[in-house]
Design a protein that fits this description.
The complex is a heterodimer.
Chain A: H1 5-20, H2 23-46, H3 53-89, H4 92-96, H5 102-135, H6 139-145, H7 148-175, H8 179-189, H9 191-201, H10 209-233, H11 236-241
Helix pairs in contact in A: 1-5, 2-3, 2-5, 3-5, 3-6, 3-7, 3-8, 3-9, 5-7, 7-8, 7-10
Chain B: E1 18-27, E2 30-40, E3 45-49, H1 56-63, E4 71-76, E5 79-80, H2 86-92, E6 93-96, H3 108-118, H4 125-134, H5 150-162, E7 168-172, H6 180-196, E8 199-204, H7 207-213, E9 216-221, E10 223-228, H8 230-237, E11 241-246, H9 253-258, E12 263-268, E13 273-278, H10 281-294, E14 299-304, H11 309-316
Parallel strand pairs in B: 3-8, 3-9, 6-7, 7-8
Antiparallel strand pairs in B: 1-2, 1-4, 4-5, 9-10, 11-13, 11-14, 12-13
The chains are: A mainly alpha, B alpha/beta.
The structure holds adenosine-5'-triphosphate and magnesium ion (MG).
Chain lengths: 277, 326
């Protein structure tokens, strides 16, 4: 059986439905944009009419960085929940009993995160562009915001950074035995690529179209490699029987017969019982 | 203790729905089940009985391609059980796990839509409606699964398992935790599956339901202890006997029973009750009555002794797999 877009879409649709009814995700989606909208706007509006080009560039650069944090951070949190959350709810086992392939499941889940995260990033970007055009007192701000490299960076980096966070998040999620640990690790791991973006934003590298494209290609390759690694980490048997799984209560659960040798599942990422890496 | 019986032939007809051949699964050094072999015919309702920790769920997971067996081989719905055949096998079977695992934030219909999509159904509306109809849940289609009672969730799980019209359906303790009415409804639904010709692999430790529902049962306690029709198991395990009850204790039971031809042995059971081992209880009953009457005894009753599947089970499950050091 080959990869099926239909099965992937079924997963995607279910993810989006669940998000819509999840107070946690709705809350995050509502608060994050506010944080990441207010700060850039304050930066832009504080630029007075007499500020020179270099200073404007710097300020606008930090605005872009802020705009990219949202689509990098939000997916990390959601993706980290994705697999371990299903395990805790006991919904992963029924999913795995269907013909669903792991690539379909992973891509469906990833798209489910990319769509809201990148959608939100683009909307923030559009709102800031609009506000600058309407209200900015310094004409240099508008032209700095409209620079090719900046726009390319925003449009390309948002989904690519989201991709990084998602794969790292799902990878952690597929190995973690606890939702909270997964989310903390996931958030942390969304930071490294942002650091590189920060270097560009703060003019450590001069922003240029070439640089933006090169960096985008590197991110894209990283995303693909990560997808491969995460697919390989996704082990049906381990997910069903390993630590943190909603597993069949060994021997009915509560009564431990005297002298029983009981194997306590180890908490944490590595599980050597079956010789997985 | 009866030895492991194997190869009890399933009813004839068609190629088998399940063939399991010396299957073993270990988790590290812990043995979940060992050297299990049996065959299930298409359309059969096959009961898989065993105490807690016997390896029932693990067997279902192995046959459902969720975990890889350590050794042995099997074929499921006619497809050999190998890691490459996983998606094909999963397309042709349905598994209802011990916990139905529904998305609580989605409605009943939305849960089923997801699974219809996963089975590659383009226009799942009618199929979903039919599945809901067959579990009597049409009216609850728009309820969130988080708001359903345990019994209703179990029925949603069954509806979900019907979506792909599976050739083999694995039900892992479908009535556990249900009240008698809800359990009864689930059992009726399983009976309905039999009429549709679905092969049902039912794990349970409820012996009454296995006896009522299953064409054949297997008794597992890490290793397979026995396979056969419930009545067959009873006969194989227990010698046939008559239970005689008299008004007063017999002064010389040995003299009466010992001299009655056809009574192989006897033992007292209570003050004025006796169990006789005989070859043919039905034809021996009048014979024994006459002997007793002519000896002056007041006979209260003579009945053929009934052994339940429970007696069979208790006889076969004689050790505790969880406590056994492995
Ligand atoms: N992931 C696992 N790791 C180690 N041992 C396991 C694992 N899963 C099951 N076992 C062991 O395998 C044996 C069989 O377990 P299984 O869950 O299949 O039993 P069961 O017959 O379904 O029991 P129950 O009636 O309680 O559901 C048990 O001894 C159990 O402790
Ligand atoms: Mg079980």
């Amino acid at each position: 059986m080959k990869f099926s877009v239909g099965r992937m879409t079924a997963v995607l649709r279910k993810e989006l439905r669940e998000y819509r009814r999840s107070p946690f995700i709705i809350g995050t989606m509502a608060v994050l944009p506010l944080v990441f909208l207010v700060e850039p706007l304050v930066i832009i509006f504080r630029i007075g009419p007499t500020v020179g080009a270099a200073a404007v560039d710097k300020a606008v650069g930090s605005t872009f960085l802020l705009l990219l944090i949202a689509p990098a951070l939000l997916p990390a949190v959601i993706a980290a929940y994705s697999v371990v959350g299903e395990r805790e709810q006991g919904t992963l086992e029924p999913l795995l009993t269907t013909p669903l392939r792991r690539e379909e499941l992973l891509l469906g889940k990833a798209l489910g995160v990319v769509v809201p995260a990148v959608g939100m990033g683009y909307i923030l970007f559009a709102v800031i562009q609009l506000c600058a055009r309407l209200f900015a007192s310094n004409a240099l701000v508008v032209s700095a915001l409209g620079q090719g490299p900046h726009i390319i960076a925003e449009v390309l980096f948002a989904p690519l950074l989201a991709g990084w966070s998602i794969w790292v998040g799902i990878g952690i999620s597929a190995r973690a035995s606890d939702v909270r640990v997964a989310q903390q690790l996931g958030t942390l791991s969304s930071l490294p690529p942002l650091a590189v973006v920060a270097l560009v934003s703060f003019d450590v590298f001069t922003p240029s179209v070439t640089l933006a494209v090169v960096f985008a290609v590197i991110l894209l390759i990283a995303d693909i490699v990560l997808f491969r690694i995460v697919s390989a980490l996704f082990d049906r048997e381990r997910l069903i029987t390993g630590a943190g799984a909603q597993k069949a209560p060994a021997g009915g659960g509560d009564v431990i017969p005297p002298g029983a040798v009981r194997r306590i599942p180890r908490v944490g990422g590595s599980d050597d019982r079956r010789g997985h890496p | 203790m009866v030895g492991i019986t194997r190869g009890e032939d399933p009813p004839a007809g068609g190629s088998p729905a399940l063939v399991v051949d010396h299957l073993t699964k270990r988790f590290g050094e812990r043995l979940a089940f060992e050297d299990v072999s049996f065959t299930v015919a298409p359309g059969e309702v096959f009961g898989f009985l065993g105490p807690n920790g016997a390896g029932k769920t693990t067997t279902v997971r192995a046959l459902g391609t969720l975990i890889a067996p350590t050794s042995g081989s099997a074929s499921v719905a006619g497809i050999p059980l190998t890691s490459n055949n996983g998606p094909e096998i999963r397309q042709r079977i349905a598994i209802m796990p011990e916990n139905p695992g529904l998305y609580k934030r989605l409605t009943v219909a939305e849960n089923l839509q997801l699974f219809a999509g996963l089975y590659g159904q383009r226009n799942p509306g009618p199929r979903i409606a039919e599945a809901l109809e067959s579990v009597n849940l049409t009216a609850r289609a728009r309820d969130l699964c988080g708001n359903l009672s345990k019994g209703l969730r179990q029925r949603v799980g069954l509806a979900r398992a019907l979506l792909n019209e599976p050739a083999v359906m694995f039900l892992d303790e479908p009535t556990s935790g249900l009240d008698p009415v809800a359990a009864h409804e689930v059992l009726d639904l399983i009976n309905g599956l039999r009429q549709r010709g679905v092969t049902v692999f039912l794990t349970t430790h409820r012996l009454d339901e296995a006896e009522r529902l299953c064409d054949r049962v297997a008794i597992l306690n890490t290793t397979l202890r026995s396979v056969g029709r419930p009545d067959e198991l009873r006969e194989r395990l227990f010698s046939r006997s008559l239970v005689v009850e008299t008004l007063a204790p017999l002064p010389a039971p040995d003299a009466i029973f010992g001299s009655t031809t056809g009574v192989e042995s006897w033992r007292p059971e209570g003050p004025s009750s006796y169990v006789l081992t005989v070859d043919d209880p039905r034809n021996m009953a009048p014979h024994v009555t006459r002997a007793l009457v002519s000896a002056g005894a007041d006979v209260v009753s003579i009945t053929e002794s009934q052994h339940s599947l429970e007696d069979v089970y208790l006889q076969l499950i004689d050790d505790d797999p969880e406590a056994a050091a492995r």
